[in-house]
Every structure is written in C-alpha cells, then in structure tokens.
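Human: Cast an eye over this sequence-structure pair and say how the chain folds.
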Amino acid sequence: MLGLVQICLRDHQYAQRLSQYLRADTTFEDCEVISGEPEELLLERGDGVCVIDVASLPDLPKQLNNPAKTVLIVSGTVNLEQIWQSGIVSILQSNESLEYVKLAILAALLRPDTGVPVKKLKRNLLTEANTDNLGTNTSEAREGEM
C-alpha cells in the first residue's frame, strides 16, 4: 500500500509515538509517515491521510480537500454531527489505543476522496470550544451505535 500519512497534532509527544508506531508496523512499510506543524504539512499531495486535532484546525491552510481522508483526534466533548457533516468520519479520543488510531488511518487510506471542504467546520468547532458548549462525547456515541 503506497500512501502518505501526515500527522499534525499539538501534542508532539503523542504525534511522535504515533509516527514511531506506524513506522514500526509492516502494514505501513510502503507509506511515507511524516509529522510536523500544520502550516508545514497538509500539502496537496495526492490521496494522503491527515491526522489532526481540534487545536490544529485554526492553522490549517484554507481548507482540507480530503475530509474523508482525515482522522480527527479529540479530547473531551465535540459536536460529532458538525464533524460528520463536513465529511470527516474518523474521530477518536486522544486516550484511545494507538491500534485504534492505526485502524482509522488504514480505513482512511482506503476510503475514496469526497472533496468536501471543512472551512465551516473550523469556525464552528472553534466557537464551540471557546464557549464550552455541551456536545456528544465520542465514547457515548459509540455506545449508542452498539
């Protein structure tokens, strides 16, 4: 599997652990795994996967062109409906196993491009984060789906 995985997380230790975990996995031996700041990465580079967190959203260049190939790492409560409406379908809590994150990245690598921009999502998530609105916790949503 050839591909690109760009990891743009404010938690640099978590980003480094995830990068090392993916590079050590033979499933990703044909993938380029890079990590750094959003303004340095998230370039138009084909069908790559972007791993981002909510804190990185304000620094993204304009908008994401591949929201279906985006894995969003969150901590706490987020508005899942807004995220899903933007095209992002892979949302994980930061305290989840790296194995779950790896599986979400693999799924995103295989997922076709939807081309739905997330410009509105950035503004809405930031507004909610600043006002600390109540939303749906991802673990609660997951339990509801079971």
